[in-house]
């Protein structure tokens, strides 16, 4: 006689099949749970890494900001202002000024290739070399030679620093200017309402061990004349139509703001490039220094 549907044999077989199916289901569920747990752990670790990176960048930004001058320099016969806004949390541009023992003031502006944490570190190194060299060397050319030789041993292949420095003496109208690959530079002559666009005298720093340059240029500034030093982040900021801000727009801003203090002129320049950009993202660091003869 055939076994009943409720017979012990069929019941055991049914239980066995149920346990097997339940085992497969439990294994699948457990596998999915493990995947979700692993994904959550990876996401949490990624968040921790991002938070650590953001913290490190913020520390680097704070350190870099602390290396910038805290106020305008005081030197007879001149008004001077500087300003910087990096494209990222840190940047490869910097500006600086330092007083020498003889009373002269050295004003420097530099642009390290690229932007971000690496160029920011190199900019800090460049500043340290420059401060030591200008204080320890007898003239502008020897100081630049020493900065270049120091940087050449630190910079990797394909990297370099464009660097411009202006030396002002109290009560004097003469400004000594030397550019290592940095340009264009602008001199606004008030009495003629004229812009002179100047190039560099030497190669950028760090390319070769020996500094190759023509002698420094000596400018004779009359009252109201402006020496304008900027990085190319201003010129190369494009609007939605891919037009660049360019030197001519910069000249227009300087001309219309010429009677203002250098800090106000820089502010006008920044607002002009922001308005021109039409909301496009800042791609490069913005740094400017303006020296005005009183």
List the main descriptive attributes of the protein structure presented here.
41% helix, elongated, 2 domains, alpha+beta, 5 helices, Phosphatase 2c, domain 1
Task: Summarize this entry quickly.
With 294 residues, the chain is of the alpha+beta class. It is built from five helices and ten strands, in the order H-E-E-E-H-H-E-E-E-E-E-E-H-H-E.
Can you walk me through this structure?
This protein folds into 2 domains: 1-67; 73-293, Phosphatase 2c, domain 1, CATH 3.60.40. It is built from 5 helices and 10 strands, in the order H-E-E-E-H-H-E-E-E-E-E-E-H-H-E. The protein has helices at 8-67, 117-136, 140-152, 246-256, 262-277; strands at 78-85, 93-99, 105-112, 161-168, 174-180, 185-189, 194-198, 217-220, 226-230, 286-293. Strands 1-10-9-6-7 form a 5-stranded antiparallel beta sheet, covered by helices on one side. A hairpin with a 5-residue loop joins strand 2 and strand 3. Helix 1 packs parallel to helix 2 and helix 2 runs antiparallel to helix 3. The N and C termini lie far apart (121 Å). The model has no long low-confidence stretch (mean pLDDT 87).
């Amino acid at each position: 006689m055939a076994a009943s549907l409720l017979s012990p044999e069929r019941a055991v077989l049914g239980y066995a099949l149920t346990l097997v199916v339940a085992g497969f289901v439990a294994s699948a569920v457990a596998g999915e749970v493990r995947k979700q747990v692993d994904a959550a752990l990876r996401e949490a670790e990624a968040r921790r890494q991002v938070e650590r990176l953001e913290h490190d960048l913020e520390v680097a930004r704070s350190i870099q900001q602390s290396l910038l001058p805290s106020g305008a320099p005081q030197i007879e016969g001149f008004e001077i202002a500087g300003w910087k806004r990096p494209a990222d949390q840190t940047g490869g541009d910097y500006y600086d000024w330092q007083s020498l023992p003889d009373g002269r003031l050295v004003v420097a502006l530099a642009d390290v290739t690229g932007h971000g944490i690496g160029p920011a570190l190199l900019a800090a190194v460049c500043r340290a070399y420059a401060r030591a060299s200008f204080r320890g060397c007898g003239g502008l050319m020897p100081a630049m030679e020493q900065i270049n030789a120091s940087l050449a041993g630190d910079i990797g292949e394909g990297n370099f620093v464009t660097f411009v420095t202006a030396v002002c003496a109290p009560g004097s109208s003469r400004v000594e200017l030397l550019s290592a690959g940095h340009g264009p530079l602008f001199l606004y002559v008030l009495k003629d309402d004229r812009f002179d666009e100047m190039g560099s005298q030497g190669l950028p720093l760090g390319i070769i061990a020996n500094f190759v340059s023509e002698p420094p240029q000596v400018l004779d500034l009359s009252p109201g004349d402006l020496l304008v030093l900027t990085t190319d982040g201003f010129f190369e900021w494009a609007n939605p139509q891919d037009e660049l801000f360019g030197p001519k727009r910069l000249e227009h801003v300087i001309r219309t703001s010429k009677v203002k203090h250098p800090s106000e002129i820089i502010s006008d320049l920044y607002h002009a490039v922001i308005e021109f950009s039409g909301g496009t993202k800042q791609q490069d660091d913005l740094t400017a220094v303006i020296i005005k003869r009183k």
